[in-house]
Amino acid sequence: MIAYSPDGKTIASASDDRTLKLWDVQTGNCLQTLTGHSSWVLSAAYHPTKPLLLSGSHDHSLKLWDLTTGTCLQTLTGHTDAVWSVAFHPEGKTIASAGCDRTLKLWDLATGKARTLTGHPKEIKCLAFSPDGKTLASACFGPTVRFWDVATGTCQAIGQGHSTGIRTLAFSPDNRTVVTGDNDQIVKFWDARTGKCINTLAGYTNWVWAIAYSPDGKTLASSYLDHSVRIWDVETGTCLQILTGHTAWIWAIAFSPDGQSLVSCGDDETIRLWNLTTGKLEKYLRYSTQQYQGGIWSVQYSLDGQFLFSSGQDAIVKRWDLKTGECIQQYEGHHGWIWKVKHHPHQNIIASSSDDHDIRLWNTHSGKCIKTLIGHQDKVRSLAFSPDGKTLASGSDDGTIRLWDTDSGTHKTTFQMPRTLIFALAFSQCGNYLVSGSNDRMLRLWDIDRGECQYAHPACDREVMSVDISPDNQSIITGTLDGIIRRWDLLTGTCLQFLTIPKPYDGTNFSKVTGLTIGQLQALASLGAIL
Q1: Given a cut of 70, is residue 72 above it in pLDDT?
Q2: Strand spans (E) along 192-325
Q3: pTM value?
Q4: Is the sign of the CA dihedral 435, 217, 255, 464 positive or negative?
Q5: Which of 355, 367, 227 shows the shortest CA–CA distance to 309?
Q6: Cα 82 from Cα 284, distance rounded (Å)
Q7: What is d(CA 180, CA 195) in angstroms, rounded to the nearest whole number?
Q8: Which of 90, 91, 88, 99 is nearest to 65 (CA)?
């Protein structure tokens, strides 16, 4: 999260590394680093007139910083979960905060005391004061926008209309309108007095979250921000099928061992199994309300294709019986969100990686943790077994890839990339190479035998979220946040192919249309229009 200073000369950035950094806009230099939070810093806001900065964190607290000295003046506690959003009142005497505990708090800056406002049914992702300071708007990770009278703390109006989580909002300069944006790239405009929706704009930004080769290497699957899964013919580059049904981001996909089915999971709290012959949904797995505790971020078939393993926000690996659709086993031991679960290629063992920095190996029959691999200094987002199962690779936000001996659990090798988040890993079928994707937008090929990076190529101008290697060891595929799938020659890193999906206004000519604002023109351009 970033925030501009009132004079526009500096930017404050909040980070998962538990720090805030102040940057000079003109030079790009880091001017100051503020430390003190014990977990991720999720939000920041400048005081309207004074050299003060406010931050909110996953550690449930707010901190007020003196930017002249770089010291923390005050720590405000009262929230019972992560603080996602903070804001200063235009007069600078009041602070607003909100987060995962579903409450808003209005703090008196002088006394540190807070009023608590309740009513949102889900986590509150964003809030904003009106320019005149009379109204506070807030939106939760659901369909609801609320408008509050700042003086009395009462809810004046409620707006309903989004179908997925609202992630951003802003007030118009005239105090009359609030604009919100959701996970579907839908923008809505609201009357701040009545809560009525007065306009809707449909946008389109289609990030690629996950990709996977089929077992025979002839097709690949990709998941997108628009909640769809697409099946592609690798040779021709044509889209064969579009699988729709998810209602939120799809974080992970996996082919069944026989290549006849595909499984997908995501933030809509479901696991879906698709028949690739018919393109229809075969099975729908979901916990009951009492059991569900968060988004599902990773899925993996068992070796025989009879079971599924899933992991996510509730820090528990779950085993599903595909015949009955029931969760039949839970593997507990992690102390944070579980980013990835991977099955050993030959044994009844699964590996899981977590926010707690650890990797655990589990016996799939007994559900017992047989080894804990310790060494990473930050969350571990990615895992990959070598084809022979003797090596496990792990990628972390600490900027390292570590190779582990699966039998002994000992650390073998470390590849270092400072200040890099490792999002994805994949071994070649020959076992000689490992490919990685990361937030620095680089595609890297690692030579396992030599223990070195064979090449590091810019993949695109956005983060590389997913990678895979073809079964014949000839090519790599990448999924990136620009919405394009790219196929690369494994040994040279030469880009061989682009797979893209059409945008809503591709080829539509708006060049003779007059009266459009700069923002409308930019939106049309992003949707493929000719201007």
Answers
A1: yes
A2: 197-202, 208-213, 219-224, 228-233, 239-244, 250-255, 261-266, 271-275, 280-285, 296-301, 307-312, 316-321
A3: 0.63
A4: positive
A5: 367
A6: 31
A7: 12
A8: 88
